[in-house]
């Protein structure tokens, strides 16, 4: 069973993302009942959840809420069938992702990694129908949407099964200063 470690945002960021998600879902025929927007960090195969909780708590203990920069480049990931916005390469999120990956592998977890390009992406919606005319990188986002920075306040572990939507396993809140 695959488990996903994802980064989630605060309420203010979701208020800014909601019209963007709705607009792009309509434009590219994405699933309107998609999960809340998230940044996938790691994919784990059949981990021992109790051991995983201890390791992740230890890794993220010094981290506090942080901001990520979102670009206006929209793309469709063919392997995951998701509609994404590109995350800029600067900042906390890249360091946290690399630290999680390295430490989870050192502790013996089967880490698959995210099957996107070399950059992190903000997943907005699941695409059921992929039109052949859609290219890997799509037109940039309209200028009327102001999405320069979003604030990450927690990580979550999800188990996704084919019969149900995401199942929340564990929440890992970041420090608040």
UniProtKB/TrEMBL annotation:
Gene3D superfamilies, per database record: Cyclic phosphodiesterase
Superkingdom classification of source: Bacteria
Protein name per the record: 2'-5' RNA ligase
Q: Which organism is it from?
A: Clostridium hominis
